[in-house]
Every structure is written in C-alpha cells, then in structure tokens.
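Q: I'm writing up a methods section and want to include an example of the input and output format. Could you take the sequence below and give the corresponding predicted structure tokens, formatted cleanly so I can copy it straight into the document?
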Amino acid sequence: MIIWVASYPKSGNTWVRAFLSTYIYSQNGEFNFEDLKKITLFPLMKHFNDIGVTPNNFVEFAKNLVLAQDKINLSNDVVFFKTHNAMCSVENYPFTNKDNTLGAIYIIRDPRDVLVSYARHDDTSLDFSLKALINTKNLATLADDKNKKLLSIIGSWSENYNSWKNFNLTKKIIIKYEDLLINPFDNFLKIIEYLNELYGLKVDKDKIKKIIEITKFSNLQDWEKKFGFIETISKKELFFREGKSGSWKSQLDKKIIDKIENLFYNEMKELNYL
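A: Here is the clean output for your methods example:
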C-alpha cells in the first residue's frame, strides 16, 4: 500500500523525505542520496510501462494513474511516494483512491515563503512564479530519470492544500513546515508515531534525534556540494538553500504580499499565517 509524502512544490517535501529515508532505509543511520531515491516521485514513465501503457495525451495519462498504483500494490509492501499532485480528477479519473492509499503525510508552508523559494529554485522572476502559485490550472512538466516528460496537476497553493485536507482518508497527517523548523523533534516524532499507527514502524526517539541532526540543512547542503542533487534545476542556487521561514518579509513587495494574502486569506488564517 502507498503512503504519500505530498506537498505543494518548495514546501519541505525533500527535507521530510531525507529524514524518512534515513530513518526507514539507512543501514548505518547515515543519510545518503541513494536511500532518498527510495522515496521517489509518482508518477514516472516506468510506472506506466509496468502496465504496458505509454500515455500520449493528458486524459490517457490520468486514466492510468490508478491502474499503475494497482500494479504497485500487488506486492503488498508499504511503499512511499513523493508527489506534488493535487488530489483531483481529470475526466473523472482520480489521482488516487482509498484502495491504493494507506496514508498521506502532507507538508504545508507559508505561501509567501513558497513563492520566494519557488522563484529561486526555477530561476524565474517573482512575478512569473506568482502566476504559478495562484493558477488554478497550474501544471508542472516533470522529467523522470530517463528524461521522459510527464505532467503533474498542481493547481494553486490553496487548491493543492484543500484537495489533500479534504481527501476522504481515515488516517492522514498535515504538518506545517514552520513547525518542523521551530520544533523538529516533536513534529518528526509525530510523523513516526503516525507511521507506527499505520503499519507498525518502530518509534525510536534516540534515532529520531540523531537523524534530525544528520539531515539538518547545513549537512544536506554539504552533501549536495560534494555529490550534486538530481532535483536541482537552477545553476545559480543550491536545492538545499536556506531552510528558513520569513524570507518573504525582505524579498516581496507590498503588492505581491497583498495579492497572496487576499487570494489565500481563508487558508492562511486557518493555518495561523495571518
């Protein structure tokens, strides 16, 4: 069964995956990018190839998402996947369903900081990235490891959040990126306790403390400088750049701030960002 590590882009998904991959898969308790790859993106072209399909259009792509997950779940193993996809349907074909989903960890981040990080990651202007942040039809073109192009239906920041919040799943957890920064132990413990409830993953508090230290941003930056990172797009910026909150205060002008706060007022109020 699948456990989703879901978020809008640039919201802390990779940090959470770094922690989880080290906690679950590392043989020596040390982080490495090979273990990180074990929590890979869904979908990749290989997932469609495994069911004998090569989607040639968007509807065909959407039509086979659940079929690809059915194939993955034949193993009866617990499998983690990263996704930025909104929990939505195309022509009544859903991204996933309860039969294929054991659980979901959704990471949410202040959209003002998301915008700053998004622009730097994609090496685009703030105005250009703002259009993506608020675009209800936002699609991302993703490349798998063989450079096969696939689409991800992201939607706007609020749509993405609400789609996962309202996903009719008995057991899911929503974690604020800012809470991970302020109190990493309690919040990563919350994630591990959630996984313990889902499938019996052992809770080891000493191990949690150790891996929080190992996967802090300065260490991930060092790893990226030494070995590179496949998810890096910008030639100017590291993928693991700052890992801070509140950068928007010095990076965004009042016009952009007002637009974000007006458009996403209800969600930002709910999440105590306002």
